[in-house]
Amino acid sequence: MKILKWFLSLIVILIVAFVIFYFWSSGRTSSQTLFLIHETHENPTKLDSTFTIMTYNVGYLSGMTNNQATKSDKNFFTNNLHTLEQHLSDTLPDILCFQEIDYDSKRSYHINLHDTLTQLFYPWSVKAINWDNKYVPFPYWPPRVHFGKVLSGQSIMSMWELQEPMREVLEQVASNPFYYNAYYLDRLLVSTVVKHPVQDFLLLNLHTEAFDTLTRNKQLTFVYERIKAEKTRQPLIIAGDFNATSESGEPGLQLFLQDSTLGCIAFHPNEPNYYTFSSENPEERIDYIFYTKKDFEEISGRVMTEYGEISDHLPVMGKLKFRNQINKI
User: Fold this and answer.
1) Average pLDDT in the 108-118 region?
2) What kind and span of H or E run contains 214?
3) What are phi and psi of 71, to 5 degrees?
4) How far is 202 from 196, CA to CA, in rounded Å?
5) Coil vs helix vs strand at 160
6) Quick check: 313 and 287 in contact, CB under 8 A?
């Protein structure tokens, strides 16, 4: 009888401990999830009708160790940061969309990449948090790498004023148990209005589901329907990590590729340096920048292979020109 009571007491203690750990480890550390930031430093404002834009899944500066149990030392991250800063200094885009950018995470030694880059280069930015946990059990082994704050998300940085930021959480993987989703990042569509001196336009930064094809296609279909009406009303650009290749024929991505009103920067499947993943051995194109053809003309565009293995992705950058130069100044 004593053994049974002892055993039941142990079970109750373990259940209580698990519940306490679950709520502690899955709880958010930040009270906000969306920030519009204006730096006080002055940057020269371009007034002409051409501008450059880049999308980059920066993989929290982890190179090819992203999604692996490998823990690199701090020098690895600081070297990647300095390399990124140098590349941006050489070919600074007017607008930059980041995915997988860390704001304050143990895994990247609490290097706040957003603040570092905006203080150096960009007067306006939007920061949208999609991962805020004290414990992240991915990858599953070894457990010692699971502990430590992760604060990460998607950022938009701009030389021009940004307004009306919005953070939309996309559908989660329905087959995942609730406790899995509690520790998993939110997939986001982040949008803002760019107050360009020629004409305002809507800019969207997308990061879709990577591992579940059904959910990814639901997300891409939702996003396409979300922008279908918008792109007829105003100039629109959508950039990001779509996590789908054109070769796969996935219906969600095909909605974008087969829309004759949309252009896609540097989309030349038969040319060299077309792929963006992985940076070590590029063999898939999963990062895109789409724009409304009635509003913009593509002057040039390419995959930025010189960025190397700072991330497991390579960035895409292009130069666009307004077709209708309705100068507001």
Assistant:
1) 94
2) helix 213-228
3) -110, 115
4) 10
5) coil
6) yes
Residue in 213, 280, 273, 201 with CA at minimum distance from that of residue 245: 213
Model pLDDT, residue 28: 57
Strands (E), 199-268: 201-207, 236-241, 262-264
Kindly state the tokens that stand for 163: 């307004």
DSSP assignment letter at 67: T
Task: Please name each of the domains of the chain with its CATH number.
Answer: 32-322 (3.60.10.10)
Q: Are strands 316-322 and 296-303 parallel, antiparallel or unpaired?
A: antiparallel
Residue with the two structure tokens 């406790």:
179
Cβ proximity of 243 and 264 under 8 Å: no
- pLDDT score of 23: 47
Write out the DSSP string of 267-320.
--TTSSS---B-SSS--B--EEEEEETTTEEEEEEEE-GGGTTSSSB--EEEEE
pLDDT mean over 14-30: 50
CB 168 within 8 A of CB 189: yes
The residue among 307, 308, 300, 304 whose CA lies nearest residue 316 is 304
Please enumerate in sequence order all residues whose Cβ is within 8 A of that of 28, keeping only pairs 6 or more positions apart, or say none.
132, 133
Which string of b and e fits 13-23 if b means at least 16 CB within 10 Å? Answer: eeeeeeeeeee
Tokens representing residue 135 in the block: 């414990």
Q: What is the C-alpha to C-alpha distance for residues 329 and 327, in angstroms, rounded to an integer?
A: 6
Residue with tokens 């980059």: 56
